[in-house]
Amino acid sequence: MGKSWSGEIAIVGIGESEIGTVPDKNPMQLHTQAARAALEDCGLDKGDVDGVLTGGIANPLELMHSVLVSEYLGIQPRFTTSMHLGGATQIQMVISAANAIQAGMAEVVLIVSADSIRSFVGYEMLLGMFSGAGVTEMFSRIGHPQFEVPYGPTLISTYALAAARHMHEYGTTVEQLAQVAVTIRKHAAMHPDAQKRKEVTIDEVLSSKMISRPLTKDMCSIISDGGAALIVTSAERARDLKKKPVLLLGGGARTMRERLSLVDDLIRTAAVDSGRQAYEMSGLGPKDMDFAEFYDCFSITPIIFLEDFGFCEKGEGGKFVEGGERIEIGGEIPIVTHGGCHAHCHPGVPSGIFHITEAVKQLRGEVEERRQVKGARVGLINGLGGHFSSHTTLIVGTE
């Protein structure tokens, strides 16, 4: 794996834009709002930034997106690129920033990601326009053009297949799937900025509109505008800055096949490998984690990730979440403490960055008292892109 940067790199600033429904700001303005907030958070100026990473933008008219964002912000970085790995993007950008800093290619890296898929329909609409398809038709074209597209799979239906397979193999129930949504919505209800702040019951989740069996509407991500930013630098420089640094203790990544028809197993994911890499780099394990910010695009993913990251045995994820006590704040391993993609904010691909900013807030002790994980010192964050295609993992902690 090469030289480890465990404990040598830190997140020193975080910033979030307005979220939810923000019709008066386009994606570039949301990027700017988040970036300025992150710089203010750590007490640095844009002149201190020599690395800029952006991710998740699919606009075919913005091929050099990080260059455009840098220009808009008035930054001339020596290290810059744009990435797109779906919901795995933001953690991969943090890992890339750490590698660049360790290699001497940058000293202070700004990571920023935002979009407006609620107010402006998003860049997916542009892609649909370029392909001559409407949004609904375009999403039905996801997959291999010869072996999948003719049968009309959607991104949602691929996760529904994973949920159905887990139910078939292990006896996981729809009530257990619903419990994941109930717990995450409970956490969102404690968050002053969450888009959905009303708690729900298992019966309400199950009676919400069926989207792709067995996943109902309340088991799926919401649609939002918004974005966030991170400032990453060396732990040495972090000591002189405004806020308590959050150290990067471990990281890992692994990509499986992108095409659903080529996936060997729907419910055993490469999160196992990305997690193993992060655990080995940090010298820690599942029992050391105080919370886990799982990427929760659909209610099946936290169940599978509890298994694949070693919090329970394979097949026991459904029973683990049953009742909610073990995964709630105050429980054995609190998950998605801000409300995640289910209820806090989901502006498409950039949604993963909010899992990182939430982890930083938890470790700094900056969240509302009832939402604070008591004594939090170490947390796990994971990212997920495509049809369980790309997996990234980050372990963060305090000194």
What this model shows, in words?
The chain is an alpha/beta fold and 399 residues long. It has one domain (9-121, 221-397): 3-Layer(aba) Sandwich (Peroxisomal Thiolase, Chain A, domain 1). It is 35% helix and 18% strand. It contains 14 helices and eleven strands. The protein has helices at residues 27-42, 65-73, 89-102, 123-131, 135-139, 155-170, 174-189, 202-207, 235-238, 271-282, 300-308, 317-321, 340-344, 352-364; strands spanning 9-16, 51-55, 79-83, 108-116, 210-212, 215-216, 225-234, 246-255, 291-293, 378-385, 390-397. The strands form two sheets. The chain has a nine-stranded mixed β-sheet, with helices on both faces. β10 and β11 form a beta hairpin. It is globular and about 55 Å long. Residues 122-140 have low confidence and may be disordered.
Largest sheet: 9 strands, mixed
Low-confidence stretches: 122-140
What is the name of the CATH superfamily?
A: Thiolase/Chalcone synthase
State the helix count. Answer: 14
The fraction of residues in strands falls at 15-25%
Number of strands: 11
| CATH architecture assignment name | 3-Layer(aba) Sandwich
- Taken in chain order, the helices and strands follow as EHEHEHEHHHHHEEEHEHEHHHHEE
Q: What global shape is seen?
A: globular
Distance between the termini: 24 Å
